[in-house]
Amino acid sequence: MIKMLRTALCILMTAGLLAGCAKAPEQTVEPELLLGFSQLGSESAWRIGNTRDIEDKAARYGVSLMLENANQKQENQIAAIRRFIAYNVDVIAFSPIVEEGWDNVLMEAKDAGIPVILVDRDISTENEELTTCLIGADFYSEGVEAAKYLIRKANKLRLTHVNIVEITGTEDSTPMRQRQAGFMDTIKNDGRMEVIESINGDFLKSRGAECMRTLLEKYGNDIDVIYSHNDEMTLGAIPEIEAAGFEPGKDMIIISIDGGQEAINVLKEGKINCVVECTPMLGSALMETALKLKAGEEVDRLIHPEEAVFSDEQDLTQIGPRGY
Ligand code: AHR
């Protein structure tokens, strides 16, 4: 019965009839690897680049991809994972929007004998065996790098006291928690640094703008630094800073994370001071890991891509096209 479901699924994918299934290779036979991937949403250029990269790499590696977009809702991700189990996919991958609340559905995948890969973000669980590995950025290091840049900048400008506002990503998500922890751990022994407010911008441009308006109304001229957990929120905040009569990058130090094309352009204009890279190009590692799991091979528990820091300390003309 399950085999019939899978074959029917492949025919539908080939005919392009199944909503959410991307670029199935041209075939009507059972594919070598059927991968179910639940993307969390489309909140940022980073996320859109990540989805595109996974689709492209699936086609390149000859993997049949069943892709579902959860539109920022955990319950949609849980339902997608249940559908992948019902279709008896070979491997399930997902980017969890938040860390808590996955044990039950992952236990169902485990009982069905389907290995699960975490992509981009982590989960919080007591049971390590529910997932095989995590492929994603080292968010803690990103926070550390952001703080190290700030300390160097404060030294250069001979600042004696630094008021920081932090615009954070989605509550209870791995990048929000770890980018905050890495940053705080790094500035905590520097007596000049004071985080005067942390405000949740949910990784969205519109929320970044709203948060910035609130912060400017409350603190105005007292803000020295904006530490924003992603480019999208930074790009929302900058026009608000300008509208309030300040020069971003000069009157206020702006530090962002992601390194998408638009933010790099704004960095080159001098309105952002530092962008810590977080690459969304995780597709190759995902396909290679899924193929290994299908073949019954061991995989590394943690796969972090290499990442750079771009800032006004460098020759920015050397930065090539970003691809997201
Ligand atoms: O999980 C990665 C983060 O999610 C990226 O920094 C952000 O832009 C995205 O929405």
Description:
The structure is a single chain. The chain is of the alpha/beta class. The protein is built from ten helices and twelve strands. It has helices spanning 2-14, 45-60, 74-86, 103-111, 139-157, 174-187, 205-219, 231-243, 261-269, 283-294; strands at 34-39, 64-69, 91-94, 116-119, 133-135, 162-168, 193-200, 225-228, 253-258, 274-277, 302-303, 309-311. Strands 2-1-3-4-5-11 form a six-stranded parallel beta sheet, with helices on both faces. A six-stranded mixed beta sheet has the order 7-6-8-9-10-12, with helices on both faces. The longest helix has 19 residues, at 139-157. Alpha-L-arabinofuranose binds next to helix 2 and strand 9.
Query: Unreliable stretches, pLDDT < 50, 5 or more residues?
Result: 1-5, 14-24
Biggest sheet strand order reads 2-1-3-4-5-11
Give the count of helical stretches.
Answer: 10
SS elements, strand count: 12
Task: Provide the helix percentage.
Answer: 40-55%
Bound chemical compounds:
alpha-L-arabinofuranose
pLDDT average, as an integer? 93
Assign the structural class, choosing from mainly alpha, mainly beta, alpha/beta, alpha+beta, or little secondary structure. Answer: alpha/beta
Please describe the topology of this protein.
Elements: H1 2-14, E1 34-39, H2 45-60, E2 64-69, H3 74-86, E3 91-94, H4 103-111, E4 116-119, E5 133-135, H5 139-157, E6 162-168, H6 174-187, E7 193-200, H7 205-219, E8 225-228, H8 231-243, E9 253-258, H9 261-269, E10 274-277, H10 283-294, E11 302-303, E12 309-311
Parallel strand pairs: 1-2, 1-3, 3-4, 4-5, 5-11, 6-7, 6-8, 8-9, 9-10
Antiparallel strand pairs: 10-12
Helix pairs in contact: 2-10, 3-4, 5-6, 7-8
Bound molecules: alpha-L-arabinofuranose (AHR).
